[in-house]
Amino acid sequence: MTLAEARSLTFAHRRKVFLVSTPTIRGLSRIEREFEASDQRRYHVPCPHCGHVQWLKFERLRWDKGQPDTAEYHCEGCDAAIAEHHKTAMLAAGEWRATAESEDPGTVGYHLSALYSPVGWLGWTRIARAHEAARGSDEALRAFRNTVLGETWMETGEAPDWQRLADRREAWAPGTVPEKGLFLTAGADVQKDRIEVDVWAWGRGLESWLVDHIVIEGGPGDPDCWQTLTDLLVRTWAHERGQHLTIARFAIDSGFETSAVYAWARQVGFAQVAPVKGLEGFNRASPVTGPTYVDATIGGKRLRRGARLWSVATSTFKAETYRFLRQDRPTPEEITAGASFPPGTVHLPSWADAEWLKQLTAEQLVTVKSRRGFTKLEWQKLRERNEALDCRVYARAAAWIAGADRWSEARWADLEDQLGVAKANETDTGQGAAPRAQGRTAPRRRTMRSSYMG
């Protein structure tokens, strides 16, 4: 950017330099830095009811929960609801106004979100619907904030207090899958003298439960260690409703003893096991990419494209985990009255000890400067051991690889039916399940039961 501006100096006073971009991460976005150095102009429009002039903010777009079709903008002056059809006249009567505190920043800057989109383009109802669809996914929410609102995404990497997490622990037996857990994934962290594995259950909205914590002594140089790991792939965990579940996807870190990890993954098959490699940084198109075929050295022999490797943006999943852990929860009284936990809630069992909780909260997101003077976000350890956090990230990546972030309502409903969760709820409440939407009768398709249902 500096070089491009320097080359424009040849044109002296006739030059114009335009910097146009969608913002990215707060504190790292170049266009954010340039906009903050400008006079920060926003497009102000008058309220059709009271005439109050304002610039449009997303927090004033309101709708009934789960009903984006009711979206209306509320004036910050009179709080009256403004319907979509008023927008045409509002835009025609609007004007750009500088909002920067500096009197003469020397640069003109403009910001415009999709809230100003003309009638017939991207309306308020579609914006509300897009936000509803993005809830529960950091990647989707970040894309919404960057592309629809034109705002930076704030990565929140503050580690929650482990003692507060201890106070929130819930009672269920080790190895038992709570009722709303619909499938299992596992994350394995390979150490010099052991392999640690955490098994997580996942439900709708990526709500999750720690089901098991397993430490396999011996390390990657011990054949018995790998055999024990193999046995986990066929082991079953009892669901609260009587079914038995196996691990749908098993993600194992390949950063240490890579050859041994590849050899084991080839032996047991890549259909269930996913060797993963962590990547730093937030500015990635997807939190998980792959698989890519990589060369593997097995038994002293080099095999071209001998292993499948998944790349995982660990920073993204760490930030998501900490955000989920800090979420407010309903009180016991509200739960008794029928309140549900917010999407992404992380449930921890009473048998998760202090050491495990400290490992889960062992890192902090900080802003550091590189040698060239650029700032970046970086995860730093608060304590030496962080296996619980790493295993959580790998298990979360396994859920992404299994497709949980992209499953349809029908897919979740099918898992509930296979486990008897929906039928159990009907029995407990004495009421029938909510009727599904009726449409044209479609040809019957063959239904395959999930292979990880025991």
Automatic annotation (TrEMBL):
Residues 2-96 form the Phage terminase large subunit GpA ATPase domain. It comes from the Bacteria. Residues 424-454 are annotated as: Disordered. One of its GO terms (molecular function) is endonuclease activity. Residues 107-405 form the Terminase large subunit GpA endonuclease domain. This is Phage terminase large subunit (GpA).
